[in-house]
Automatic annotation (TrEMBL):
Protein name: CHAT domain-containing protein
Positions of the CHAT domain: 763-1064
Pfam families, sorted: CHAT
Residue windows of the TPR repeats: 172-205
Keywords from the UniProt entry: TPR repeat
Naturally occurring in which organism (per UniProt): Niastella koreensis
Coiled-coil blocks: none
Amino acid sequence: MIRISFLLWIMPTVFFLDGLNAQQSGINLTTIEGNLMKFKTNGEVVNYLKSELDKVQQQYGRQSAEYLELKRYYLDQYWQIFQMNVYTNSLLFKEYFPGRREVMELSAKVLGTSSFQYANDIQLYTVYFGLISSPAPTGEEFKSTMALIEKAVKIGKNVTGVSKTDQAGFLSLMYCQKGDIYRKAGGRDSAIAYYRMAIQLREQYPVYDDAFPSMLTLYAQMVSIKDYQEAIDVLEYFKPAIDANYSQQKEKQYHFISQLVSLYITNNNQEDRLWEYLHRAEGLCREVYDTLSVQYVDFLLNTKLQAYKKAGWRAENFQVLLYLANNIFKAKPALLTDSEKFYIEYSLEWYYFYRSSGENELAVEFLKKADAAVRDTMVDENSFNSKKMLYRELAMEYEAQDPQLSLSYHMKGLNLEKKAKERWGEFAVHQYHEIARFYFRYKGAGSLDSASRYCRLALDEFAKVYGVRSFFYENALFTLGTIEYKRSNGSKGYELMRPHVYAQFHDSTFSPPFGGSVFEIYGDVLNDLGKSDSADLFYQHIYIRDPTATFYRLSGTVEKQQNRNLEDLYAQNNHILNEHYKRYKLKGDKMVLKGLADQLFQKNLILAMQLHYNQALTQIKTPIDKEYLTDYQTARRAYDSLLYTASTDQAYIDSVYMILDWKRSLLVENLQANNAHDSNALLDLRMKYTYKRVQTKLKEGECFVDIRLFQRSGNNRYVYTEPTYALVLVDKNSGNKIEYFFVENVADLEQFISTARYDKLSVMLAPFIKRMQGYKKVYVHPDGVFNLLNFYALKDANDKYLLNDKTFMYVNSIGGIAAPVQAGKNKKAVFFGNPVYTKSITSPASHLTNHIFANTGIDNCSPLPYTKIEIERAAEILKAKGWKAGLYSEKKCSEEVLKKEINADIIHIASHGFYLPESETTGQAYVIKDNPYLRSGLVLGDLLVNKTSLNDNILTAYEVMGMDLSSTSLVVLSACETAKGAIKSGQGIYGIQRAFKVAGVKNVLVSVRNVDDKATQLLMEHFYTNVAAGADYVSALKNAQLEMLKHPLFNAPEYWSHFILIGE
C-alpha cells in the first residue's frame, strides 16, 4: 500500500486586498521590520515583538485596529519561525493558534463580520483543525468550525471589487479546509468532494500560490485510497502547470514529483514513468536538502527503496542500504539514534533484505533491534506506520514457533490503531481483521470462536468507515465465511465468501499472491463441494492474472531469492495438485482443465533462464554491459580460486560467494533493463508453458507425456509429506480437459528404478502404459526419479517391450518437441577414455577435492579397459564415414586437454563419474552442500596437485557450466550414474548432465546407474554405426538398443536400458 504522509498546508496565501476594508492605524510596520534585522536569534525576534505588542496594547487598547494589525504581523512571523517541525513543536499549539483565534474574534469586532479581512482571519484560524498533528475535532468543535468556514465562504462569494482569480483562490482554500476537517472526522468521501471543488476552481481561475501544489498532492493521496489511476491522472494533468509556474521553487516541485513516484510505485502500469520521476525526485531532493538531511533519508527509505523492491531489484536495494549505513548514518549517527521512525524503518528494510536472501536468523536479529527501538506507545504520524508494520512482522515471524508471543504483538498493533483512531478519528482499526485471521490459522481451543468474534468487530468497523460495499468490508466478510465454513465442516459460510471473491474476479487489476489467496481458498471450497470446473477456473486465475510474474520473480535476483520465489510458485502448484489428488481419491474425478495444467506442470524454469542468459552474454556490446560482465567474471575467478585452495574459512568463502551471486544478479538486471540480448520476450516464450503450444508441435500418432512430482497431505490439509507423481498425456486432438494418472507408492517406484526391476515397474505403471497405446512417438518431460527411468524397458499387456513399437524422446522443455537431434555439419568428434588411475591419493590439492575423494570412494578408481576399446571402435566407425575423430586415451585423457578440445560436434567421455548426495556432505563441507553442481562430476585421471591451475582432473558440473558448448550437438557421458544429481522437484536433476545442458549442448546421452563396461562398449558400437549412417541420435540409440535385445548375453534391460538421451 502507498505510504501516505499527510501534508501540512504551508501557510496559505493571505488575501490582503487593496481598497477592501483597509485598516488605518498608527503602526509603522516598516520601522518594526527594520528593527528585526538587528537580532541574531529567533528568541530575540519573538521577545522584541512581544514587547512592541505590550506597548501598543497600553497605548491603543487590546480591541484597537493598531493592536489587531501588530498581533497579526507577530503571528505571521511566529509561524515562519516555528512551522518547520509542526509535528513535535508544541509552541505552535500553545501560542500560535490561540493567537489566531484572538485575532479572528478581534477582527469581527474591529472590522465587522462582513469584512473580507475577517474571512481571511477565519481561514488562518480554522486551518488548525485540519492538521494531522492536531486532535480530531469533537462534535461541537466540528459544528462550530464548519459554521465559521461557512461564514468565510459566504463573505468570499459576495465580496466585490476583487478579481475572479483572487476570489477563486480564497474560496478554494476554504473548500480545502472543509476537506481537511472532514478527513479528520473520518468523512473521506466528503473530504474528496471538497478537495475536488477546490481544484476545479483553481483550474477555472489559476492561482499559483504556495497552497496549490499541496492541494493537488493531498487530493491525490485521498483519491488513491480508492483509485490510484485517478490520482495519477489528476497530477499528470496539472504537472505542466507545476513545471511552468514553480520552476524556481524546487521544494514544491520535489513534493509534487515524489507524490507521483509514490503513486507509480503502487500502480502496476507505466514503469517507465516511475523511473523517470524517481530520478528527477532524487535530483530535486539532493538539490533542496543536504544529503545528510532527514528529508533525504526519508526519500531513500520510503521512496527509492520501495521502487527498487517493486521492480525486484534486490542488488540495488542492497546498495541503498549500504549507502545509508556507510555514507549517512556513519557520518551523522543522530539521524538514526534520535529518530524512532528511521531506526524502525531502517531495521525493517534490513530484515526484509536478509529474509529474502534466506538468511532468516540474521533477518530476525534486525527485527529484534527494531522492536527494542520502540521507546513508547505514543501515537504520532511520524512513526505510526513504522510501528504498525513492525508489530505485524513480529506477529507473523513468531506465529509458528510461539503463537502466544505472536498474539501479543497483534494486540500491540490493535492498541496502536485504537489510539490512532481516538486521536485522528479517520483511522479504521484493521487489526481486528488481522487478529481474526490469526485465530483462524491457530489450532488452539476456542480459536474459531475468537476468530469469529474479532471478524465481526472488523465488519462493524469497516461498515462504519468504508461502507458495506467496500473492499475491506467484503474482504472481512470473506474471512468470516471461511471461519464459518471450517466451524460447520462445510455446511455454512460458502455464500459469505462470494461477494469478495467475485469482486476480485471481475477486477482485472487484481493479482493474487501465491499461497493462501482468496482464489485458492475459494477454489478449495468449490473442490470440496464437487464443483471441479469452477474450482479449476479460480485456481487458474491465480497464475494468469500476471503472466510475467514468473519471469520477474526468477530473473535478476540472487540465487537464494530465486530459489525462495521458485519455492513459492511450486508450493502453490503442490497445494492444487494435492486438492486434485483428493478429488480423484474421494470422487473418482481425475480430469483437469488444460489451461490450469499448463501452470501446474511448469518445469525447468531455472534451466531456461540459465540458457537464455548464457546466450545473452554473447551479445553484449555496450560499455556498461561489458563493465558488469567484467565485474562478474572477476568475482567468478575469485570464488573459483578459493575452491581449489586448502581454505576452510566458512565465513570468508560464503562472503566471496555472496559477492559472486550479487555481481551475477547485477549483470542480469542490466541485461534486462537494456535489452542487450534477444529481448526478454524470447525468455518469456521459453518459460511460457502451454499445452496449446505443445499441440501445435505434435503430429498425428505423437503424444506428450508430462510428469510432476508433488507432496500430498495426510490428515492435515496444509502439511505435505507424502511424495506423489502426477502424469498427464496430451496429443494433437486433446480437448479442454486432460486426464490425470497418479503414482502413489514412490518408495517402491524409486527402488524398482534403482535396481532396474522393469517387470515390477511395468505392473505399477500398467494403466499409463495402456494409455500410451496407439502412439508411435512419445515425448517425455520427466520429473524426479522418472529422469532415471527408461520407458523403452517397460512392457505392455502383451509382455512386449515398448522398445519394439514406440520411440521415446526425453525433453527439457516444450521447445524440445520436434527439435533437431542430428549431428552438425562439421562432423568432428572427440573421444576421451581409459584414463590412468594409479595413484592412491594422500594429499589432495584442495579442501574441495579432499571432500569429494573422502566421500565418493573415487580415491582408488579401478581401471576401465573396455573404455579403450569403446572409444577406439567409435572413432574408427566415424572416421570410416569421413568424420574427424580425436582420440584421447590414458595420460592424454585429462581435464586440461578436454577443455582445449571442446569445439566439436560430438564429445564422448568414458570415465568414472561421481555423485555425492547432500546427506553425505558433513563437517566443513558447506561449500559443496550449498552447491549441487560441486557434488557431481567426472574423474578424468589421476589427481593433479597444481596450485596455479584448476585442471586437477576432477571435472565438476560447476566447471562444465562455465564452458561454451553451444556448437556441440551431443555429449556422451559413458560413465557410471552420470544422470544422477540433486533432484529438485520441477527443476530436474542438478548434476553433470544438467551442467552440459547449461553450457549449451543440444543433446546429452547419460547413464542412469552403474554401467557394465562390455555391454556399454557394444551398445556404443551399435550407436555410432547408426550415427555414421546418418541416423538422428534418437533413432541411433533406439536401434542400438534393439540390437542389444537380440544379443544372447546382453538382452536383459539392465544391459541396454541404462542409457537415456536427453534432448532440448
